[in-house]
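Build the 3D complex.
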Amino acid sequence: MTPRRVLVIWWSQSGQLKTVAESFAKPFADAGHEVHYVALEPVTPFPFPWKVNTFFGEFPETVLGRPAPIQRLALPPGDWDLVVLAAQVWFLSPSQPFAALLTGPDRGLFVGQRVLTLISCRNMWVTGWRRLVKLVQAQGGMVTDRVVATHSGSVFASYFTTLAWMLTGKRDAIKALPAAGLGSETFTRLAELGRVAAERLGAEPRGAAPAALLADQVTATVSYPHAAGEQVVGRLFPVFATIIGAVTRPGTLARDLSAVALLCFILSSVIGLFVPFVIVEVLFRRWVDPWLDRLARLPVA
Ligand SMILES: Cc1cc2nc3c(=O)[nH]c(=O)nc-3n(C[C@H](O)[C@H](O)[C@H](O)COP(=O)(O)O)c2cc1C
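Done.
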């Protein structure tokens, strides 16, 4: 085993993404690799728990890719054999701190760099992950792998439990439903994927072209109502963001009102679209299953 240098970049409000990053990366250190963690630091911290107006108030800047700035990174010198980006999805887009990293003064870090994207979010990750890949590629990086950790339990209930968690800071804010967030089985799976990736990284010949480490592993799952929902709202979000961004400014009453309107739109689309999508899934399983399978095995190109 040849020890390699691994950089893990993470940011988390609740601590969930930090645990995701550590669960995946610990096996690299256990295998003898040098692992360096760096946390992103927004210049002005985002609130947590959120209020309805601040949560939905971040929608235009997030979707339009105009993130609030982060502090410069303090990194040890030298090249990295692997960069792990442990990022979350916000409004079907990369969260603002990661968008800020990939468009800000430290973006040069990614030139010629092999990147493993480690996504953790509620369940709608496909569009946000694709946008993250584009940002990495625009900086000359190569995304070779993707691991996705999504919240456990019923996908319908998680809409409400995740929002309640974000607005109260409590995972079990809705007592009648299962707690929000990732289940312990996900951390076990992340540790196993990390072990496989660490072993393969150590076995690579020095100077070899950066290759995927987990190409043959199941690294993501997709639910049909979510994937189909992304097809619909993913097209509408940029239109809404452009309009709201053009006519309102952050912190104004107009932005607060747009936040409430967005909440109403999202709740009504969840309730209005979920059941039809479940019916489509049941009736057309023959076509739905191969489509989901293709999404879950997205080629990282
Ligand atoms: C503003 C905001 C928007 C979010 N949008 C999405 C989304 O579009 N899809 C999704 O699956 N999860 C979404 N989430 C959940 C996050 O991806 C993530 O799971 C949650 O914020 C916990 O991450 P943390 O480690 O930063 O606390 C959103 C969270 C926030 C705060």
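The longest strand covers residues 142-150.
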